[in-house]
């Protein structure tokens, strides 16, 4: 793995580094707020908590053959992409709890895998049955 896979693009890659690393602040804030929401609201709703350790894995920096820049980037990617996947799982559980209805069919929309268990768009009868069950 070469730090710059395309040496002819090295200058352009260097220019993008501040933009990539500038996202760390917002990701930390997102992580904090989602964790607060997750810790407080899920127990109130009775939703099973999402296991953070299944989404955030930081281990590639331990590889001895990586240089310090590569190790820092591996820590960043493991954390940032892990947090985004983790918050997506929290959002999915929330969506399933509060709604559970698929979006209207659209060939451009990439439906999340967890929507497979949702009610079909426009299926009022199933929706009302589910509401009755949850009210019991």
Short description:
With 136 residues, this protein is mainly α. It is 57% helix and 0% strand.
Structural category:
mainly alpha
User: What would you call the shape?
Assistant: elongated
- What value does the average pLDDT take? 92
Beta content: under 5%
The overall number of domains is: 1
How would you characterize the largest beta sheet? none
Residue windows where pLDDT falls under 50 for at least 5 positions: none
Radius of gyration: 20 Å
Distance between the termini: 57 Å
User: What is the percent of helical residues?
Assistant: 55-70%
Give the ordered list of helices and strands: HHHH
Number of strands: 0
| Number of helical segments with 4 or more residues | 4
Give structural attributes.
mainly alpha; 136 residues
Structure in words:
The structure is a single chain. The chain has helices at residues 10-22, 24-45, 68-98, 124-135. It has one domain (25-135). Helix 2 runs parallel beside helix 3 (68-98). Helix content is 57%, strand content 0%. 5% of the residues are buried. By secondary structure, the chain is mostly helical.
